[in-house]
């Protein structure tokens, strides 16, 4: 097979908004993005399954007017679309009906594809009688049997278990290289996209933009944890998977840049240096837990720069560690360096304090949880939550729906026996946890006896917290004891040693930002 170049010019259909795209012959382009961004729509347009505006070329020839069966495309839709009443071989036979191969060639083509994908033994079975991984192989074989010059893959591994998906990813890339295909794949999975793609783009709201690959492994290995930072050898590394991290939207990032430099960088303009090629580096001046690097990278890319590499949020950096490198015009880099640096410094300050508090608490009690309250500065919730989780802590009642928390200000309006209102409250929210805050040892014991799920001890001395834990254990009650109010890195170990299950703190939000150095120099 010979993969052909693909070119799209101003393609619009449904959510798609003037998409321009070039894929080299034999290239493997992966497109990531959220649901509803337009990824599947793009593949359907290329396959000829949806009307559109704009031009589509394959191999230098326009084929937007060609019907789907004449485009010589192999297409694997997300739900595979195998015909359940036809055998595996029958599904491939159907795909050959309008191909350039004669009927005499069909048996050989089918046998070759089934053999290449190691499913020859399934030829006479129905799709409903094989596993998910085997169905995926059948769909690939059906797409390849007509010897296409272009392959379109829509979330090809989304329904598979991780082990099967990982194995098939390797096989798919090997097939792509062996056959010289041109391939377009859309996926939600960032790891999948960067493992398979020669190039990765991001689709958001019907538009394509560059996707930045986190390159954190080398930086993480070279970083040296200090005595008060979490040690990955203890099984609680602060390095998080980038796919699970909260990501600020493009609109939020654009608003930050517009707020900082609404009309561009004046100094760059008056010095007439904006068009000069430049290089920018972000360096940690101190040991810290990094956060916000993904957002910094995307700001730079959206301003017209090109990010070469960056370390992921959650990476522990030693002083002198370069954690982000970018290049581009001096105008693009100067436009974003201040706001991106400020965001990283603010978020990394929170993440570092969270990491140190977690390390202190788990040094005394390896199983204790650490959660940060909702008392972040107004308007900074998203980045604050990301920073807290990057540091290895969690959020306390983030959505206000996991638990019902009763404060003394609520209890002041209640009357009657404690057990009665506790019982009524638990019955009304049977799927949630009932938490009650207390600042007195005896009251806390009474709440535990009444059957509350969690007693949250507010601003109680270490000794008092230990006494409540001891009483609950002595009574054999299942009530969880948590401590909050005034907990910080200095006293976290003492509170953790009381045996309580969770420390709740606001201290991570308050303190100086991390210290980051940004250098921009001419590229020469």
- Give the total of beta strands: 23
Gap between N and C termini: 42 Å
Query: What is the number of independent domains?
Result: 2
Instruction: Output the CATH class name of the largest domain.
Output: Alpha Beta
Mean pLDDT: 85
Low-confidence stretches: 215-244
Structure notes:
- 41% of the residues are buried.
- This protein has 524 residues and is an alpha/beta fold.
- It has helices at 39-47, 88-95, 106-116, 132-144, 162-179, 190-196, 217-222, 250-260, 266-270, 293-302, 330-364, 381-390, 408-411, 418-428, 441-450, 462-474, 492-496, and strands at residues 6-13, 16-23, 28-32, 53-58, 61-62, 73-76, 150-154, 182-187, 199-204, 207-210, 277-284, 288-289, 306-310, 316-317, 322-329, 369-372, 394-395, 403-406, 433-438, 454-458, 480-484, 502-505, 516-522.
- It is built from 17 helices and 23 strands.
- It has two domains: 6-210, Rossmann fold (3-Layer(aba) Sandwich); 212-524, Alpha-Beta Barrel (TIM Barrel).
- The two termini are 42 Å apart.
Can I get a quick summary?
With 524 residues, the protein is α/β, with parallel strands linked by helices.
Question: How is the secondary structure organized here?
Answer:
Elements: E1 6-13, E2 16-23, E3 28-32, H1 39-47, E4 53-58, E5 61-62, E6 73-76, H2 88-95, H3 106-116, H4 132-144, E7 150-154, H5 162-179, E8 182-187, H6 190-196, E9 199-204, E10 207-210, H7 217-222, H8 250-260, H9 266-270, E11 277-284, E12 288-289, H10 293-302, E13 306-310, E14 316-317, E15 322-329, H11 330-364, E16 369-372, H12 381-390, E17 394-395, E18 403-406, H13 408-411, H14 418-428, E19 433-438, H15 441-450, E20 454-458, H16 462-474, E21 480-484, H17 492-496, E22 502-505, E23 516-522
Helix pairs in contact: 2-4, 3-4, 8-10, 10-11, 11-12, 14-15, 15-16
